[in-house]
Amino acid sequence: MSRIHFIPHVHWDREWLRSTDSSRIKLVYFFDRLIDMLENDPKMYYFTFDGQTAALEDYLAIQPFQKETIKKLVKERRLFIGPWYVQPDMIIPSGEALVRNLLIGSQYASSLGHCMNVGWVPDAFGQNKITPYLFKELGMKGIYAWRGFDYEVLKDSLFMWKGNGNVKLPTVHFALGYGHYRGFPEEYENVKADMQDFIPKLEARFQDQEVLFMLGSDYAFPRKHSSLMIEKLKQEGYDCQMNNPEDYLETLLSAAKHNHHVLEEYQGEARSATLGRIHAGITSTRIDIKNAMRYYETLMAKVVEPMIAISRFQGGHCHQELVNYFWKIIFKNQFHDSIYSSSPESINQTVENRLLNLRHGLNELIWMNFRYLAESANLSSVQKDEDILVLFNTLPYQRQDYAFVSMIVKHKDFVLKRQDGTIVPYQMMNEVIATCHDIEYYNGMENFHDSGEVLEGTKYKIQIKIDASILPAMGYEILKVCFHQQNSQEMIGDVQILENGAENQYLKMFIQKDGTISVENKKTKEVYHHLNAFVEKGDDGDEYNYSPCGNDKEISIYHNQPTITCIESSDIEVKYRIEYNAKVPAKVVNHERVQELEALKIISDVSLKARSQTIDFTTTIENHSCDHIVRVTFDDLYQSEENCSQDQFGTIIRKNIIENQKSLEDGATEYVLPMYAMQRFVQLHHQKSIMALISKGPLEYEIENNQKICLTLLRSVGKFGKADLLIRPGRASGYRMDAPSSQLLNKNITSEYSLFFGIQADMSKMIQDAEMLNTPVQTRYLNDISRQKNQGLDWQYSAISLDTRVELMALKKAEHGQYSVIRIVNNRDNDVENVRFHVPLTKKCYLSDVQEKKKIELENKNGEIIIKNIMSNTFVTVIIE
Questions:
Q1: Has domain 496-758 been given CATH number 2.40.50.100?
Q2: What does the alpha-carbon distance between residue 80 and residue 52 come to, in Å, rounded to a whole number?
Q3: How far is the C-alpha of 536 from the C-alpha of 631, rounded, in Å?
Q4: Which residues have a Cβ under 8 Å from the Cβ of 547 and sit 6 or more positions away?
Q5: Span 3-81+116-262: which CATH code?
Q6: Which of 193, 83, 176 minimizes the C-alpha distance to 131?
Q7: How far apart are CA 118 and CA 134, in angstroms?
Q8: Is the preceding omega at residue 83 within 30 degrees of 0, hence cis?
Q9: Among residues 68, 211, 767, 839, which one has the fewest Cβ atoms lying within 10 Å of its Cβ?
Q10: Cα torsion through 118, 119, 120, 123, rounded to 10
Q11: Region of 148 on the Ramachandran plot (φ > 0 left; ψ -120 to 50 alpha; else beta)
């Protein structure tokens, strides 16, 4: 007979059906009952709280007097918490966001006595291939997961999951789901009947006869008679016990070793819907929220924290707890149901409110560094009729792009000068881009005292571009703004305007009459056609899934004659505006699109810049229809059955068509469409010339006919849950409720993306361009300055420079102490040896783990640090004293 291991647990959706504060009320009563059971029932040995800690913070904010009791139960290993802060989606957030979610969650759990030492992923909609590596780097001993795996691939629920860098972690698959048994009935005869039903199904999945029985589910209150029922089962001859994830994993591994059971090895991501739905459409629901979240997670890791690090190297200070406060806001929006936007209206509104908090907070953290520099730099040489312009480059290498500067000035005539008097050329822009009018924004980008004078006509809003290659790596430069002087040195670029087109040294671009783009890769003489083509079709799905409509036909928006206008023309940039006014069906009724039409307006700005191998697009969709999807498509010259996209720690190769998936007729829970998520880029996987799509926001793509890259720019649906979809028959996911905000009606949805063209040897350049596009130079014009020596800081400073073969994941203050931490990722498919980076001479550096514990001191040769090897698709963490 098998031995049954009951793990009492709960999966706590911090927000899903109810808002966080509505759930918090239930949470308080939940924990009150749980604490009472653990303290007063000597046979209630263990309880597992969902592998996350944010909800524990929610509880202790109401019941702070229970903290010591919680700490006692955690320390005694009776209440298991961590390692996450929240249970995130595993595919949408960035790699650094996932790392920090685990770091902050595990350290909070440890501060309460103990962090559960296994990864816990019960309800993410599919599994990422990086998961074993991520948990291993944190020091986890194994993983528990559910969705995405199936019986056809895994013959046993215990297996070895191989991840990046040849890391392998033992993994337990929840055979019948994490919540297959909500709790024991109060009548023992019903308990016995349940055992007779469930145990044979579970025994088929655990060949070493150590069966996992999950005792709990979503929001499931702990049953006070749980321990009594287990004791009764023992008395009836069942070999059973209450257990926890740590001890059960050890038992399972010991049994496998004893039985000479060689564990199966699984490698890669898991997207099967055989056993549980993975809801592929969640990567494009509420794309306005997803675009914003991509922006803020990038801003935090690539701009805010590096700027703070630069200031700290120069004597500044910032509490890491303050930074972590805003990371936690990011994590709360990356809670799986929240970032999916598969929620009722109130939850999506809550997520939007947190976006406002992030906008205010992160802008203020950025401004804090400009203010520190203005108060600390030696500005004694700045005259009364001169102001300063400060530019921060938060990438660890010299840039090859342009810095955008928006200023409100008293005179239109000025020159920019370095400290030594050298003139810095700039290019005045024809188009003035609208900027946010919140006070928090004017407190940074544009002084809010000056904004009123623009309206009154006494000051002028001007926007310029400066060659960012003048800036030091991971540092800043201060320029003087000298008024009443004519700008006689405009920038010289290599862009030439053509009739409805432009060219530079790398690319030649033409806009066709239908608005699609043709591009010649001048390196290879190859010409690509039908790029940036917009298509639209109906969507009969819900917030979880895109699902096709009956008798629907894709509408080619480019068949509508667009207007094409040149809006920027200089040596450094030529930009065109392409504007479509189309009509599309108004909505879907009874699974088919209606005859009634509504307007669909698409405005796409197309730009070619000097020295650039990218064509850059900013596309705004003005939506007035319901139940449809809008995509932009790009035809490659070459075909491939596979695509290559960036994931959190490198790249992933995927089939364009999902093979060998179980059919709906054979019982699959969903027909999984090949709609995938990327981090920043995707290309067809061939050895020909590169045409890669780089995205600053939208992440959902599909490859059609092994040649066409399709990027989703809008998905408009009006139901939280919906039954009987074509690709997902039967019950609704979620609840059958209206979610009108997810239609994105009468909204302007703006997305930014680029096309990179090159040869295969340009792969590193493409990755670097993707990083520059996603991490713009931060600039501020400052006129309220002391014009004194202050603390005497230099006008130019570089904190760190990094080998361009690898990429910076993070530069931050250590969680404890005054050290700095740099995290470096090798997102290539080959190892990189002798990785070099430069730090100030006096700094000692150590390889460390993610928990920021020193391991090996690195040799420092006059400020040059060498890391001997970084394996492909992995990262390293370094402490800088």
A1: no
A2: 9
A3: 6
A4: 281, 539, 540, 541, 725, 726, 727, 728
A5: 3.20.110.10
A6: 83
A7: 11
A8: yes
A9: 68
A10: -160
A11: left
In three-state secondary structure terms, 288 is helix
Q: Are 805 and 764 in contact (CB under 8 A)?
A: yes
Q: For 192, phi and psi rounded to 5 degrees?
A: -60, -40
Residue 92 has pLDDT above 60, yes or no: yes
Helix H or strand E encompassing 567? strand 563-569
Which distant-in-sequence residues (6+ apart) come within 8 Å of 244 by Cβ? 7, 45, 46, 48, 77, 80
**β-bridge partners, 479:** 389
Which residues are CB-neighbours of 228 under 8 A, at least 6 positions away?
A: 43
The pair of structure tokens assigned to 881 is 């004293």
Which pLDDT band holds residue 447 (cuts at 50, 70, 90)?
A: low
Q: Kindly provide the residue ranges of all beta strands, DSSP E only, lying in 672-802, ordered along the sequence.
A: 676-677, 681-684, 690-695, 700-704, 708-716, 747-758, 778-782, 796-798, 801-802
Q: What is the mean pLDDT of the chain?
A: 95
* pLDDT classification of 442: cutoffs 50, 70, 90: very low
- In Å, the largest CA–CA distance within the chain is 95
The Cα–Cα gap between 317 and 310 comes to: 10
Give the amino acid at 85: Y
Chain mean position to CA 251: 36
User: What's the rounded Cα separation, in Å, for the pair 157 and 149?
Assistant: 10
Structure tokens at 301: 């890791």
Chain CA centroid to CA 382, Å: 42
Distance between CA 88 and CA 83 in Å, rounded?
Answer: 12
Three-state SS for 109-149 is HHHCCCCCCCEEECCCCCECCCHHHHHHHHCCCCEEECCEC
Q: Which residues pair with 714 in a beta bridge?
A: 630
Question: What is the layout of strands, in order, in the sheet containing 820-826?
Answer: 807-813, 820-826, 874-880, 845-848, 854-858
Question: Which residue's structure tokens are 């919540």?
Answer: 179
Positive or negative, the CA dihedral 283, 288, 291, 297 is negative
Amino acid, res. 700: E
pLDDT given at position 452: 67
Do the domains 3-81+116-262 and 496-758 sit in the same CATH topology, yes or no?
Answer: no
Give the predicted TM-score (pTM) of the model: 0.97
Give SS3 for 549: coil
Question: Per-domain residue ranges for the chain?
Answer: 3-81+116-262, 386-491+777-782, 496-758, 800-881
Rounded-to-integer distance, Cα 154 and Cα 136, Å: 21
Indicate the CATH number for domain 800-881: 2.60.40.1180
Question: What is the DSSP-derived secondary structure letter of residue 282?
Answer: G
Cα(534)–Cα(710) distance, integer angstroms: 9
Side-chain half-sphere exposure of 637, counting CA atoms within 13 A: 16
Q: Residue 707 CA to chain centroid, in angstroms?
A: 27
The rounded distance, in Å, linking the Cα atoms of 748 and 618 is 12
Let me know: does 629 contact 284? Beta carbons within 8 Å. Answer: yes
Cα–Cα distance, 434 to 620 (Å, whole number): 14
Query: Counting every residue, how long is the chain?
Result: 881
Q: What tokens were used for 506?
A: 């790398």
C-alpha closest to that of 578 among 594, 558, 593: 558
3-class DSSP state of 629: strand
Helix (H) or strand (E) holding 853: none
The two beta strands, 47-49 and 79-80, are parallel
Helix (H, G, I), strand (E, B) or coil at 730: coil
Q: What's the token pair of residue 695?
A: 């995205």
Q: Which of 94, 95, 9, 96 is closest to 52 using CA atoms?
A: 9
Of the candidates 390, 388, 432, the residue with the CA atom closest to the CA atom of residue 414 = 388
Helix-helix angle 345-376:320-334, to 10 degrees: 160
- CATH class for the domain made up of 386-491+777-782: mainly beta
pLDDT tens for 493-528 read 999 999 999 999 999 999 999 999 999 999 999 999
